[in-house]
Amino acid sequence: MAFRSSIMFLLVAMTLCGACSGAGAVYKVGGPDGWIVGVDYNQWSSSKEFRVGDGLFFSYNKQYHNVVQVSEQGFKSCNSSSPIAAYSSGSDTITLERPGHYYFLCGAPGHCEDGQKVDVQVSRPIPDNPSPAPSGLSSPSTPHPEERPPHSAALTNAPKLALAVFASVLACCFLN
């Protein structure tokens, strides 16, 4: 009985590890305190190296804050009237899909002006097998991050999570 439980635990752990591999790092914006007024977001973001595939986790009290992705101009002027995307769940994970700058601010009155805004610069992922491009050829241009709003990482990982759940159920059926 203990042997079957150990085997099942091992299979479930391996399945979950496989389902989660390939995902980038997830950064809690603002550190332990989350998305609040009073954090130096320039200092927070400058100490990290964001890559395509990483996620930003915004944790905040939705009664007082929100997250608005804006253009560079909107960021500089604290203007959230033409958002690229807006989030208000209090627990939002945004996947960084392209290299370039992403600009976020809190749209609550006065919060951006008080420093609740973050500029995240995203680099290309490190290739598994780096090889130089043939000379004379250029790579296609990468669209600016502002051209398409990010989506939730939960949607990106849904097939992997479904596979993990299916494999776990299957393991339970065969081991009992």
UniProtKB/TrEMBL annotation:
<feature type="domain" description="Phytocyanin">
    <location>
        <begin position="25"/>
        <end position="124"/>
    </location>
</feature>
<dbReference type="GO" id="GO:0005886">
    <property type="term" value="C:plasma membrane"/>
</dbReference>
<dbReference type="GO" id="GO:0009055">
    <property type="term" value="F:electron transfer activity"/>
</dbReference>
<keyword id="KW-0249">Electron transport</keyword>
<dbReference type="InterPro" id="IPR028871">
    <property type="entry name" value="BlueCu_1_BS"/>
</dbReference>
<keyword id="KW-0479">Metal-binding</keyword>
<dbReference type="InterPro" id="IPR003245">
    <property type="entry name" value="Phytocyanin_dom"/>
</dbReference>
<dbReference type="InterPro" id="IPR039391">
    <property type="entry name" value="Phytocyanin-like"/>
</dbReference>
<keyword id="KW-0186">Copper</keyword>
<protein>
    <submittedName>
        <fullName>Putative Blue (Type 1) copper binding protein</fullName>
    </submittedName>
</protein>
<dbReference type="GO" id="GO:0046872">
    <property type="term" value="F:metal ion binding"/>
</dbReference>
<feature type="region of interest" description="Disordered">
    <location>
        <begin position="122"/>
        <end position="153"/>
    </location>
</feature>
<feature type="signal peptide">
    <location>
        <begin position="1"/>
        <end position="22"/>
    </location>
</feature>
<keyword id="KW-0813">Transport</keyword>
<keyword id="KW-0325">Glycoprotein</keyword>
<keyword id="KW-0732">Signal</keyword>
<dbReference type="InterPro" id="IPR008972">
    <property type="entry name" value="Cupredoxin"/>
</dbReference>
<dbReference type="Pfam" id="PF02298">
    <property type="entry name" value="Cu_bind_like"/>
</dbReference>
